[in-house]
Automatic annotation (TrEMBL):
It comes from Nitrincola iocasae. The gene is cas5e. Pfam families: Cas_Cas5d. Signal peptide: none annotated. Keywords: Antiviral defense. This is Type I-E CRISPR-associated protein Cas5/CasD.
Length: 226
């Protein structure tokens, strides 16, 4: 079954699934709802358009943690917030923003629908709307689109065989193995509530099970310093 690969690299990423009000969380890897939102932006699918979004939710997702990144927390202030009674004004409110710094993830989507994967691959190269890594201000430092990133391989084999995408720092040794996470089909794994069940305007999400494993780093390493 074919697999489409994309790379998510940047100085700041955020993939929250439980954010509410003044606290904006992030998971330690890209969420399915977040990456599908990114793909929807590339395809020009509106927030209220469930008909075109639904086929994307059927894709099976996997993530390879090429550079896991460092958890960080920032804060922002907002002024003149209307209180719950609708009459009074809160002069200033402090909100927290969690994010991952300096991370690189290789994401794969597997499907028997080759036409759908081809459309996504084309859209990522020339997106309808700007693409970001979880928040609009978190722009990618590398192209999300990968040349020759549509492979006639299973999801696991594609993640297993693609070269390392992280930029290797001088003196840094390439990791011997990389962590991957993928959707479980045997009822085991960690429960994640990031499976879209409706348009992004309605914001209804269901559960999916995700398992982790380790794979050996492919022998061909990209982005190594001279």
């Amino acid at each position: 079954m074919p697999t489409l690969l994309l790379q998510l690299t940047g100085p700041m990423q955020s993939w929250g699934t439980t954010s509410r009000f003044d606290q904006r969380d992030t998971g330690n890897e890209p969420s399915k709802s977040g990456v599908l939102g990114l793909i929807a932006a590339a395809l020009g699918i509106d927030r209220e358009n469930w008909i075109d979004l639904e086929p994307l939710t059927k894709l099976s997702m996997g993530v390879r943690h090429d550079r896991p990144g460092i958890p960080k927390r920032d804060y922002q202030t907002a002024q003149n917030i209307i209180r719950a009674n609708g009459k009074e004004i809160q002069p200033t409110a402090v909100t927290t923003r969690d994010y991952i710094a300096d991370a690189a993830f290789l994401v794969g989507f597997e499907s028997a629908n080759m036409r759908l994967l081809e459309n996504v691959h084309t859209a990522l190269r020339n997106p309808v709307w700007p693409l970001s890594l979880g928040r609009k201000s978190y722009v990618p430092s590398e192209s999300i689109w990968i040349e020759n990133g549509l492979l006639d391989l299973s999801l696991r084999d594609a993640l297993q065989n693609w070269p390392w995408i992280a930029t290797r720092r001088r003196g840094e040794k390439a990791p011997g193995s990389l962590r991957i996470t993928f959707e479980s089909d045997d009822g085991t794994g960690l429960l994640k509530m990031d499976q879209p069940l409706s348009s992004f305007a309605e914001r209804r999400f269901g559960a999916r099970l995700v398992r982790s494993d380790w794979i050996k780093l492919p022998s061909e390493v990209q982005n190594a310093p001279a």
